[in-house]
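Example 307.
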Amino acid sequence: MKEIKIFSPATVANVSCGFDVLGFCLNSVGDEMIVRKTQDKGIKITKIEGYDLPYDTNLNVAGVSAQALYDHANPDCGFEIEINKKIKPGSGIGSSSASAAGSVFAINELLGKPYNKTELTAFAMKGEAVASKSEHADNIAPALFGGFTLVKSLEPLEILQIPTPDALHAVIVHPKIEIKTSEARAILPKEIPLKDAITQWSNVGSLIHALHTKNYDLICKSLNDVVAEPYRSKLIPYFEKTKNAALEAGALGSGISGSGPSIFTLCKGVVSARKIETVIRSIYNKSDLEFDTYISKINYRGIKIID
Ligand code: HSE
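Predicted structure in complex with L-homoserine:
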């Protein structure tokens, strides 16, 4: 195989209570990438469509992660990468992770899959670090593994795949303002009170249990964040209104997607998802803000080969 085309999906990190450890994969929005083997050695980015991003391999997240894998594998060929960027950078649904994970997934396929998904996550984190100025894997892991993932530890890197109840759907609203992950991290306190830590780890534990046991009521009770949301929600126009309206319309829970500005809502079934999407759209329609909404089942597969 000389060339591969892939779909690299958007993802939701944190999932309210799981700051930096929990994430899930979407299937209705994602980037497309073409990666091909070349005789010339090295990594080159030859085409970028959709958004204005750097072609310099050392500055582009897809380039940095590809280079990390390439340096480790030391193959006797090179690779060129084309990116059709459909996820807006800074949207909070794992735009940089989709690029970072996509390039290493594709190169690994072209090399005959020498690396497993945990190893690919480690390479992709190098790219993610360029974009967010911190190493976290809660978007990259669900992009590569699919479904819900929990980053058990970074050193050594250990990713757990968490089962996803079948009827679970996500509704995403993306108000088109940009929030840089690095800035959204900088406003968080460095320490949290023990009382809040207890609430948070109780919610993470119960959410994982609820996903395993398909307990939608418990999912609902667990989707609370007392660590990041109180600080970050102020950056997102209509956050409280959107969250409250989604809950009133029957959502299981709603919170900031990653570092924002996108807001995710989880609900049971597509009928509920459509109702919630309508309610959310009516809030943003009354504003001057441009926005997008998406409804997505949880994507069990993660990045996939297309065409
Ligand atoms: N866990 C990261 C954060 C995700 O919230 O800063 C960034 O998308």
